[in-house]
Amino acid sequence: MLNRVGRDLCDRLFRGYTRKQWGLDLSALAPSVARRIPVRTGDDDRYFTDRHQALPSEGYARMFERMLDHPGISVATGCEFDACRGEIAYRHLVYTGPIDRYFGGCHGPLPYRSLSFEFEHLEGVRWYQPVGTVNYPNEHAYTRITEFKHLVRQEHPGTTIVREYPQAAGDPYYPIPRPENEALYQRYRALADGLPDVTFVGRLAQYRYYNMDQATGAAMTAASRVVATLSGRSPPGTAESDRG
Question: Which of 89, 114, 240, 243 could form a disulfide with 170 if both were Cys (CB 3.0 to 4.6 A apart)?
């Protein structure tokens, strides 16, 4: 990051945010963390520069409700995987939880970073901030505030915001990108590669800091491989399927 923006901007914008987000200095993280942050000299103020950018028209909750509304799908919540894994019969299992937990942490725990969220509804406040998300790299304990009305184009006399507080304890949200963590993940990956009837996919199962589009792409790739495997075809990307 120093090479890209210089020390002044690095200290003003990135170093404090990184310490809050990860509990580590920039120097302790993999270079991929800094590469996620766009640096431009023009007046394009978008975070991403993809040609097409969108959200589900009725929100992610409704999207998943429709995906799960199928006679062949049943949903169970409030049950840890370890507590019910022996009760589920399957031809092929798609696992999206932490990969180290699947194997009982036999090589030691993979570190993750968590978040806590503080929601606040402001009645009579039309807009709280000028854009959907504002980062606070140096002030406050939270890293950013998101105001949802900017994202969903909702018309309402009030507004709802959420503050995000990074923390070490809690549900795993972010794999921590450090070389030693990647080395530990590869040991679990070797175990996963020996399970042809289980597919590991997602941020936690692949120990990758995916954006939403990357997570969707990984899921679609995994789905193609699972369908091919269950139908007796060679999964896409293998030597056998390439020859076909």
Answer: 114
Look up the pTM and report it.
0.83
Nearest to 188 by CA among 87, 100, 118, 125: 100
Neighbours of 36 (CB within 10 A): 10
Amino acid at 47: Y
Q: What is the b/e burial string over 56-73, where b = at least 16 CB atoms within 10 angstroms of the residue's CB?
A: eeeeeeeeeeeeeeeeee
Write down the CATH superfamily of domain 67-111+176-243: NAD(P)-binding Rossmann-like Domain (3.40.50.720)
pLDDT per residue over 16-27, tens digit each? 888 999 998 888
Q: Give the Å distances, CA to CA, from 135 to 21, 78, 115, 216.
A: 11, 33, 15, 25
What is the C-alpha R_g of the chain? 21
